[in-house]
Amino acid sequence: MSENLSVQKTIRYGGGFLVFAAAVSFLVLKGTDMRIVWEALSKASLAFLAAGILLAEVFHLAEGMNLRILLRAFGYPVTFWQGMKYAYIGFFFSSITPSSTGGQPAQLYAMKKDGIEIAHGTLALIGELASFQIAVFFMELMAIAALIRGKVTPSAELLVLAELGFLLNILFITGLLSVMFSRRLKKKILGFLYGGIDRFPVKNKDKWKERLDGAFHDFQTCADLIRQKPRMMGRVFLVSVCQVVCWFSIPYMVCLAMGENAARYPQMFLLQTVLFMTTALLPFPGAAGISEYAFMKLFSGVFVKNPLAAATLVNRGISFYSLLIISALMMVFLWNYKGAGKCRNLSDGNS
């Protein structure tokens, strides 16, 4: 894929996302007195809003740190700013593409430009994603317990989405860990790819098979390295836990910023966890639409002093749109920043 085509696709996806986001905002504000909304927004505490944005930015920071930890374990002298570059690129392209399909390919493209092998970059991304999803899983267990005990009572459609999202996360984690550590699964995947090479009119079939063998060997070497370094993975997991806790704490900051006191932090955290679970199944860019709808349903009893539409806009503005803007700006800056450039002194074998 040429860089021009990539730019064209980015513009197309970005334009489509803006139209979709505008439509969602219109639906959120429909039937609401805009004067009351603007009044509520103008009275919000800037200090708590800033604290919410800082908590949100931990999401980028944690992913950048974890990718750096994993890639350095594979022998690449990745700098802090390189790790952050991959994090910003991943968030931006995941946010504007359906089902977040654009994030990982864009990250791998950036890693390849920096001299990181595709197999190693892929495993680092899988390891980081698996750590995040496992951290989310433990939060979801608390939410499921709260649902069973009746401490959180979402509507019927949100309850179904949350339960399906929980089950999907279990399957997702199982799949990620299987790809990382199951030799049998990797052999089946390799055999499938061999069959594709034999079936299609590809030139130099033996060379393609040799490349696949080399990539899978590198992938397995890195997977073995992860298995041999439980302390390293423990560090990655702790970073992911901090990432999730900070991200799921944003609604509470919004609550404080808008002067609400109807709910305590544990309840807000559980509500946000359930909200996250409801978005897992739906392939909307940035979970736009379902996130706003679920927030208005779940938090209707929390925001009683302010219009719910205003609280929804502030929450999504901090937890998603501010991160999207930051990722876009930092992605452009770091792409041209020498300190986030090519890995030059790789260890022997890159493993």
What can you see in these coordinates?
This protein is mostly helical. Helices cover 77% and strands 0% of the residues. It has 14 helices and no strands. The chain has helices at residues 3-29, 34-43, 46-73, 80-96, 103-113, 118-148, 156-181, 183-199, 205-228, 230-248, 250-257, 265-278, 290-298, 308-335. Helix 3 (46-73) crosses helix 14 and helix 4 (80-96) crosses helix 14. The radius of gyration is 22 Å and the shape is globular. Residues 1-5 and 345-351 have low confidence and may be disordered.
Strand/helix succession:
HHHHHHHHHHHHHH
Report low-confidence residues grouped into runs of 5 or more.
Answer: 1-5, 345-351
Strand content: under 5%
Quaternary structure classification: single chain
The percent of residues in helical segments reads over 70%
Shape: globular
- Give the N-terminus to C-terminus distance in angstroms: 28 Å
Mean pLDDT: 78
Output the radius of gyration.
22 Å
**What kind of sheet is the major sheet?**
none
Structural class: mainly alpha
How many helices?
Answer: 14
Number of E strands = 0
